[in-house]
Amino acid sequence: DFSLYLHHPTVTDPTMAPEGHSTFYALAPVPHMGKFVGDWDALKPVMEKRILDEVGKRLIPDIHDRIVTKFSYAPTDFGRDLSAHLGSAFSLEPVLTQSAYFRAHNRDDAIPNLYFVGAGTHPGAGIPGVVGSAKATAKLMLEG
Known about the structure:
Blueprint: E1 5-7, E2 25-27, H1 40-58, H2 63-66, H3 75-82, H4 126-143
Antiparallel strand pairs: 1-2
């Protein structure tokens, strides 16, 4: 059983795919390698198929036939390519008490001039969250 976040960027930006095509992004949060020590090289294609099957069942029945290009990214990829500790894409752990406002704030409350930025800080993980975190931290640093 898994959760899915689907994003269809070509709805608002048609340049994200060649004319006549669409781009979809599916995110299925999984445990980092410290919580799950399975063989991600073997599991990655299995999970990819299960995710696409679910999207096919719920949204695009012929998705397997429509795919022109695809890739998937697992915790091992995050660890190898991005030096993410234990292959974690969401910083510490994607649980409620580490989400949104509960994440580390961008300026330390006790140590002057100590700032935080990245997936583990407010507002959150993912590219939009990390960019938002960087902007918020830069603003705090410029304010002094």
